[in-house]
Amino acid sequence: MTLPTSLPLPDLLQDTATKNWQRLEDQLPVELLAQLKALPAAEKIIPCSDYVTDSLSRFPVLLTELLENNWLESPLSAAQLRVILKEKLSVVSTENDLHRVLRQFRRQMMTRIIWRDFSFQANMWQTTAELSHLADICVDEALNWLYDFYCPQWGTPYSRAEANKEPQPQRMIVIGMGKLGAYELNLSSDIDLMFCFPRHGQTQGGKRSLDNQDFFVRLGQKLIAALDNNTADGFVFRVDMRLRPYGQSGALSLSFPAMIDYYHDQGRDWERYAMIKARVIAGDLEAGNSLLEKLRPFVYRKYVDFSAIDSLRDMKEMINREVRRKGLSNNVKLGSGGIREVEFITQVFQLIRGGRDTELQERSIRKVLPIISGLGLLPQQVTDELLAAYLFLRNAEHALQGVADQQTQTLPDAAFAQARMAHIMNFPDWSAFEAELERQRAKVSFHFANVIAAPEDEEAGGLNISAELAALWQGQYDAESGAELLSAQGYEDASATFERITRLREGRVVQSMQREGRDRLEAFMPILLSAVTESETPSRTLERILQLVESVLRRSAYFVLLMENPAALKQLVKLCAASPWIAEHLARTPILLDELLNTATLYTPAEREPLRDELRQQLLRLPEEDEEAQMEALRYFKRAHVLRVAASDIMGTRQLMKVSDYLTFIAETILEQVLQMAWKKLTDKHGRPAKEDGTACDPAFIIVGYGKLGGIELGYGSDLDLVFLHDAAPQGVTDGERSIDNAVFFARLGQRIIHILNTMTSSGQLYEVDMRLRPSGNSGLLVSSLKSFKDYQQKEAWTWEKQALVRARVVAGCSELTEKFEQARAEILSEPRDIETLRQDVVSMRIKMRDNLGSKPEAGGERPLFHLKQDAGGMVDIEFIAQYSVLRYGAQHPELLQWTDNMRILETMQQVNILPTEQIAQLSAAYLAYRQAAHEASMQMTPSQVPSSQFVDYREAVSNIWHNLLES
Questions:
Q1: Which pTM does this prediction carry?
Q2: In 3D, which of 143, 152, 134, 149 has the Cα closest to residue 253?
Q3: Is residue 605 part of a domain?
């Protein structure tokens, strides 16, 4: 909202204006008073702020300095504030002088900050930033002065001696919490602080040695006194130390190890909430930031943590009780629709998702709200409204506090105070201000209810939680009556389901759960038992979902996620009912439950470019040196996007060919990033390898995909058939300080790529890699030069290796080398061949595969099952027909060499009249039918074999074409 620049002074304020100006006239020299009156903002500020009037009348010297430096009408940076205070402290020699200088400096700066805030020369964000800088600098400079002053008396604290390490001097670290940590301090706020120090040890050089903790406790007490004591000059900042570990009963200063142990072992949910805004404001900044980094996992969980909502609800309810008890409904901070509710809305998303979406690890509400909408967690209109309301409410808070430098957020009842507040806020009267206030608070209250409200207060998404199902889960039904209840609910195998539920409840893991997790499971299971009845086969669906339940019994926050989001539970039931593969996928990686929250993305797989951009953005958030975090991010990325493909596939929104396209896009995107990661690590260490012509390409390396990857036919469980090629000088070396032979460099590059792809982490394996198609197979070099690859293919390769090359294409790497590979591939595939030898080689290989991999006949010679891939008339017959045609006719018809996927090769065979249109149609239809059946078998986790009575016509047609083309 844009506020008007000025309004006439209300009648109710005229007497106060007269009194305040009279006081200034009595105390200030005439020239100084004239300069003050000449300031445009004075007409508004003097009647509105008794604190400013009191400061200027009591301390004319402060006003002189303010006017001489034009500080009332100019912003001051943190650096400028520090220079001013340092100069004032330069003459301080006693602790009493320190107290006096700090208080006068604070009064002077508070006067100018209120002046600029009330006159709207500074907006709220500028005001809160300056206040925060003021607090930072007062704390830091006071700490530095006190440390230097007391070290000669108490000794300088040193760390304990360690093996091969000299003891190091220790300094205290001051951590600012709350609004100070977020650079959003208000006009009359406490500052919430914590004191700590790196290591235990003893002081040296003092009158007697002290334990480091004793030293820093004493120093902390002196610092609090320097800031908090109320003297004739006032105070600097009220200091609140209750947020420290163990609260008021805890030591005033703790070592880093003690801090880490406390938060990881005893830290409570409200302390996670408080630590979001924690910031090192004074002392040893580098050491303090390293501590906060170690505490980050306590604040931001790696998984999506919906348990945070319950904690925030409890905190809000506690505040609500306090508001009702003390009659604080008119409190702009704690009342309904107040400042605290905006803070809760932002922090609930930070606590839930901050471990995954690391950009949410931001202290400032001003910065977090746009990030929340940018991630799609709230609509932008909502975050815009919340930000506008927060700005209005914080301005109102300042209007209350800047009058007398009092710590209040309660709206006034008296007509005079109301008129003054409305005037500060630039409203014509109280009723106009109050109307706008109520409008803003109503918006906050509405959005708060939508985000924080308990699910039982909302529509439960059609899921009816019956008391009977709750009693059944709790063991109050015997087997017979329990089966009857489940049968009545629609369970198709009620007795078996009852036994399965009983086994889960009485199992060792459930019985040993901690109370909080057990309570969550108790609340969740009846909801689940009801939800699965929406499927056609509740017993089967429940059995699949229980895999997930069992996998997260020690991570019960996932139960909260599903209870908080009935729509997500509905999607879980739908997907698991449709596919055991999806159920197993989720059970292996429960963090993917987060994907169920957004149906817009769940059923809409991303195309190649959005995939690349998303993965690039995710990896940019991680430190380059943290390979473990990068590998985990790659695995999550793959599993999340494969889930989206599977979801759209199961729901019938994607055709088979598009499913394979999307799965291939995911693999290619990951391979591109893996190559970049491996290349950077090796080149940072050894430099770049030179090519034959002495130049370098980043990278002078390609990854060639074979098989299903090369043919753009990846399935959900497909491995990656890869070949690595380079284009560097065979005898060359890298150009780094730690140079190595090119061959060694590329061997290590290949090994690192395979390591990233193959390594089994807590999130599983990225892809299984098969390198057997490289020249000379497992006995050959891991990485070959393009020249040696071409030589091998032309002089030594078997026919089956050239068949494999038909489906080979570059999936990542240097574009220049890619072109060279494509040229080499075309030359190899189109070289002259003896047709009869080619035919015999292809047929021989096919017969060998059928015998070894196909279905086995029974005693009478009949095959009761048809193997979709390997049996006669199956998929591999069609693939071999396509590959044989490319190898035989590639020289005559170069257009055959263009494609690596079977469907487009078949289409091209029709265009160049290798086979008649009718036969191509039969092959294409059969191939798609087989692939669809194999694909469905994969999703249902059943073998790729069907009764021999199926696909009879397709098998006969394919076999006839095979015979006519290759065996006649």
A1: 0.69
A2: 143
A3: no
More confident call, 694 vs 495: 495
What CATH number did the domain enclosing 438 receive?
1.20.120.330
Claim to verify: residue 825 and residue 686 sit in the same structural domain: yes
- H or E element at residue 722: strand 720-726
Q: What is residue 717's three-state secondary structure?
A: coil
**Tens-place pLDDT, residues 726-782:** 988 777 788 878 888 888 999 999 999 999 999 888 778 899 999 999 998 888 889
Q: Look at residue 958 and tell me if it is in a domain.
A: yes
Residue 366 has what pLDDT? Answer: 93
HSE toward the beta carbon, residue 749, CA cutoff 13 A:
35
Mean pLDDT over each residue of the chain, to the nearest integer: 89
Domain end point (choices 278, 299, 320)? 299
Give yes or no: residues 444 and 551 share one domain: no
Q: Is the pLDDT at 269 greater than 70, yes or no?
A: yes
Structural domain of 907: 835-967
Sign of CA dihedral 713, 716, 721, 723: positive
According to DSSP, the β-strands at 945-947 and 865-867 are antiparallel
316 CB-contact burial (10 Å; exposed 0-12 / middle 13-18 / buried 19+)? middle
C-beta separation of 339 from 333 below 8 A:
yes
Q: How confident is the model at residue 862 (pLDDT cuts 50, 70, 90)?
A: confident
Strands 191-197 and 239-240 turn out to be: parallel
Q: Please say which residue of 299, 324, 340 terminates a domain.
A: 299
> Is residue 23 domain-resident?
no
Q: Where are the alpha helices (DSSP H) in 454-579?
A: 467-473, 479-488, 494-506, 508-511, 515-531, 538-551, 557-564, 566-578
Residue 451 pLDDT exceeds 90 = no
First to last CA, the chain: 85
The predicted-structure confidence for 586-630, as pLDDT tens digits, reads as follows 998 888 888 888 777 888 888 889 999 989 888 887 777 788 888
Statement to judge: residues 812 and 905 lie in one domain: no
Q: Which of 411, 413, 404 is nearest to 188 (CA)?
A: 404
Distances (CA, A) of 184 to 189, 393, 474: 10, 13, 49
Residue 449 falls inside a structural domain: yes
